[in-house]
Amino acid sequence: MDFTLLRLLLASDVVLAHYRELTGFGQWWSHGFSSTVAVQAFFVISGWIVTASYESSSNVGGFFVRRIARLYPLYAVVVVAQAFFASILMHAPAGSFGEITHYLAANLSFANFLKPSLLGFLDQARVHAINPALWTLKIEVMFYLSVPLLVTFNRWYPRQALAAMFIASTAFYYLVDPISGELAKQLPGQLRFFVAGMVCRRLLAKTSYVQKLPKAVCLLLTLTGLAAAQFFDGNYAFAFFQPLFVAIFVVAAVRLSPKLSHVPDISFGVYLIHAPIIHFLHQDGIGLLEPGPHGLAVVLLATLAFAIVGSYAIEQPAIRLGHRLSQHLSERRNARFKSAVESLNEAK
């Protein structure tokens, strides 16, 4: 199954949501489906793909090298670039080095909530964070770190582990959400969506039933799952079922998606880059972006252009390097294992 098109559509929906939120533009045609549902769908896809990546890895080190290579290079470039341009626009004084360092340290370590903006750049803006999309990435990273443990737990208890993780995550959400909605949408509250993705992969690996479904049925399931996820989004009583609705949407939608194996996946770049572009063009004193259809077109074109450049110049070379390093680690591990076996045989 190819997730390229689906992920790009999900990232585009987040772009629309942030365009409305950051500029105040509210025409009906600019509304997609809930950006929260889009993020939840990303988590389901990650649970599916990342666990598959881990299970196909010959060692844990190689898995983490590939994950770092996939996520961090473009992320770091975007964080540094947005700090650089914000500093220029605010005519950073000589004494601002400490604040800029604080911003970079927090954001480069996925703790953007500690320093979402700098130098008063967005004090008068609707949203003060330079890049409000970054909050999900710390959740992704925490999931990556927990994957070896989650997969091992699932191997030990193949019938109970996923159900236990799902129930525990949902229970955390139900207990914490009345106290702090912000905390409830972190891990482990969001783990239920990753687990839903793990379940999807496990079920589809054992059966080709979904592949045999007529496309008309898949279209109906896509629309039904999306409508249910949209309708019950944020509904406390139906939080237990929300991952199911999102998973149905993801499975059916990806079944309808064409295979784009030769097309670069620019969804991560679109997700990372769009919000700073909106802020920098729309911010008072710059005046290059007026809320409206033309402004949205400018944002979409600029985001796509930067995402494509980022894919070819940063993401793809980093991914190739990650694969080479992972393979090197695997070869070294195999060589050490072979040497240890030979030493044991000689000792005998």
UniProtKB/TrEMBL annotation:
Keywords: Membrane, Transmembrane, Transmembrane helix
GO-annotated molecular function: acyltransferase activity, transferring groups other than amino-acyl groups
Domain Acyltransferase: start-end pairs: 4-309
GO cellular component terms, A-Z: membrane
UniProt GO BP: lipopolysaccharide biosynthetic process
InterPro entries the record matches: Acyl_transf_3_dom, Acyltransferase_3
TM helices/strands, residue ranges: 33-51, 72-94, 100-121, 133-151, 157-176, 213-232, 238-256, 263-282, 294-314
A Pfam family matched in the record: Acyl_transf_3
Protein name, per record: Acyltransferase 3 domain-containing protein
